[in-house]
Amino acid sequence: MTALTGFIVTAWLGLVILAALADVDDLRIPNRISALIAVLWPIHALATAPAAGTGWLADAGLAIAVAAGVFAVGTGLFVLRWMGGGDVKLMAGLALWAGPTLILPFLVVTTLAGGALAVVMATRLRFVVAGLSEWAGAADIRDRVLGGRIPYGVAIATGAVVIIAPHLFTH
Question: What single DSSP character describes residue 53?
């Protein structure tokens, strides 16, 4: 990993964490965060192209196709009000980074993390989380937890950190 790719990957990780925190705080993921995640991808692809060999352009095309597919399905879920617009944009931006190789594990971990969040929100566990949030001085988070809406950006970030980040930091 070069200094440039190390910087890009570290910035990517910071943006992923920032997206999760923003979603917990406000139940919104700012467009600029998803846009920056997407903009960093081609810079990283070009910076790592020499090491990737001659097939990097085909890989980039497949990653774009995967991201477009995730965005299309996500848009349908948004229309059905099953997913927020910020979640859809974040998923599509991260799908670029996952590409065809990591997209399925990324989606599986994201779905499992989302299911765990849903269990917390649907059971008495949310009162435990709310109490811990209040104890920690985070009354706004307590209020969000008690409000019942799920900050799915946390699940998306979990999928990215568990599946995509290890690949980025080792290649």
Answer: -
Q: Structural domain of residue 16, as residue ranges?
A: 3-170
pLDDT in tens, 88-102: 999 999 999 999 999
Q: Over pLDDT 70: what percentage of the chain? A: 92
Q: For tokens 């570290």, name the residue.
A: 10
Length of the chain: 171
Is 36:18 a contact under the CB 8 Å cutoff? Answer: no
The helix (H) or strand (E) run that includes residue 162 is none
- Count Cβ neighbours within 10 Å for each residue of 44-78 and write b for 16 or more, e otherwise: bbebbeeeeeeeeeebbeebeebbeebbeebeeeb
DSSP state of 164: I
Cα–Cα distance between 161 and 151 in angstroms, integer?
16
